[in-house]
């Protein structure tokens, strides 16, 4: 029997695509690693142990057929690998770039447990689809036979775009409404280019537009139309807005000039990358150049802010987090990348106030030293004040990256009957994924709270199936009534 290209994890070491030198990559917003050459990708895919129960797939929210497309890659059948990868994900090359694989597929790889190092699943996934784009294997979005029904999707982030693609493929007229002037949501304006270069997002959006999906950009529900207006225009509505309300800090001086929200800061940076005029950046408010920057938070958004400030030429960058490294929510890989690039992490530290200097501008942060106490409801040890350890750090720019909550959609949209939880997230039926309003569905972070892009894509796929079922029943009922 011919030698299999698989099961090579014992005699073949783990190898990720080489990262560019830290001092060089910190000078631009290009992605930090190049992709594999073909032989290297095939070799790394061949390390897969082809488990009978593939924990990588089980722990992937999309349940991608990971061992199967790794085998196809190892065999040199890249087009087949792409087709299989694409069958379960609308954005595999994006997930390959920004998923926290160390917490999902790779973190649950069986050979990782044996000490041989996980298969580099994300890097291979990125390689497969980037190759598919270059080779012309990514086919146009072809709409199904026209059904004579239309759907409104509110929000052009990953959940909305994923649902829109599936619904268009089923023959519906799909209209996507988004408040920004470009589609993509946080993929476009929240995630920096060094993790996700913007042409990668725009080519996905362009493919959807070419497939007949109509985008209404710069359209804000509540300002340009009420939710009820959209219900009257369309047969069904999907709420996929994500969560954008920044969590607040209650501390003296928090309103000082130079204390800014993470999303405002990241959006300004990404807009400059597109070549837009950004007054708040150009006048220096949202530009870290030459400043002593303090980022508050320990999630991936905080990591994005830290690494953006370095690229903007900050004089120093510190990240304050109230727990320790082991208990932070962000990716350990991102922390390592930031440290390589010159960021300083100050663990077990929380702001207790902001010093205000001349012109009502922030000049420093009063920091409270923390320690870990008993576990809280999440299972993590709760931070508590460590007496006697307080200190101060210099700061010209403070970026608050404490996470996001849902906006008050019933109020903003003039829809008081829209059911929401006490956290403001939209309530849906567990089976139908419909909200309290007939024909109005919801998916993504606006339902589950701030989460991962891969979960938003999964939710978009699921809700598209639920909407398809409901719309078919609606059409059948209308035909019968006629």
Automatic annotation (TrEMBL):
- Entry's InterPro entries? DPD_II (IPR028261), FAD/NAD-bd_sf (IPR036188), FAD/NAD-binding_dom (IPR023753), GltD-like (IPR006006), Helical_ferredxn (IPR009051)
Q: Which residues form the Dihydroprymidine dehydrogenase domain?
A: 25-136
From the UniProt record, list the coiled-coil ranges.
none
Which ranges carry the FAD/NAD(P)-binding domain?
150-460
Keywords carried by this UniProt record: 4Fe-4S, Iron, Iron-sulfur, Metal-binding, Oxidoreductase
| Single GO MF annotation | oxidoreductase activity
**Record protein name field:** Glutamate synthase (NADPH) small subunit
Q: What is the lineage of its organism?
A: Bacteria, Pseudomonadati, Pseudomonadota, Alphaproteobacteria, Sphingomonadales
